[in-house]
Amino acid sequence: MERTGIITMKGNPLTLLGNEIKAGDKAPDFTALKNDMSPFSLSDLKGKVVIISAMPSVDTPVCELQTTIFNQKAGENPEISVVTISVDLPFALNRFCANEGIESAVTLSDHRDLDFGSKYGFNIKELRLLARGVVVIDKEGTIKHLEVVSEVTDQPDYDKALEVAQSLI
């Protein structure tokens, strides 16, 4: 499925590929790679409140900030699992986490199959990157909050995502 005009980058419209999800849907399981190249599936976090923080690349200032903020907030509440996902290679994510002291959030690479991007509708066709956004999933696996940031260079609404996640504990 293609959706154009949902997001822009510096004002230029981009096309999103993949399924269109919404709050109330069951969160699709997906597989991506952890920093050590081992597989990770959303089902690994079954029964937990999950924040999925999707971003284009950790090598940009907004993505760096997004990863850092969610990591800090995740460390404050062990009942919320934060998963940060991009199409960066696992090696780049591992280097970033080591350099920035990222310990609480799980960082994942969707570079191989774009499984998350396809199942959640976050694939940017023109760039083969993920759109910036946040998905909050409750303990039963239902999407309770979804934000696809309309301008890729803008930050997500951290407070709203964290507020929803806190309310699910």
From TrEMBL:
Protein name (Swiss-Prot/TrEMBL): Thiol peroxidase
Entries under NCBIfam families matching the protein: PRK00522.1
Keyword terms: Antioxidant, Disulfide bond, Oxidoreductase, Peroxidase, Redox-active center
Pfam families referenced in this protein's UniProt entry, alphabetically: Redoxin
Function: Thiol-specific peroxidase that catalyzes the reduction of hydrogen peroxide and organic hydroperoxides to water and alcohols, respectively. Plays a role in cell protection against oxidative stress by detoxifying peroxides.
Family (UniProt): Belongs to the peroxiredoxin family. Tpx subfamily.
The protein's enzyme class: oxidoreductase
Disulfide bond sites: 63-97
Domain Thioredoxin: 21-169
EC code: 1.11.1.24
Residues the record marks as active site: 63
Subunit structure: Homodimer.
Note: The active site is a conserved redox-active cysteine residue, the peroxidatic cysteine (C(P)), which makes the nucleophilic attack on the peroxide substrate. The peroxide oxidizes the C(P)-SH to cysteine sulfenic acid (C(P)-SOH), which then reacts with another cysteine residue, the resolving cysteine (C(R)), to form a disulfide bridge. The disulfide is subsequently reduced by an appropriate electron donor to complete the catalytic cycle. In this atypical 2-Cys peroxiredoxin, C(R) is present in the same subunit to form an intramolecular disulfide.
Molecular function per GO: thioredoxin peroxidase activity
Keyword Kinase in annotation: no
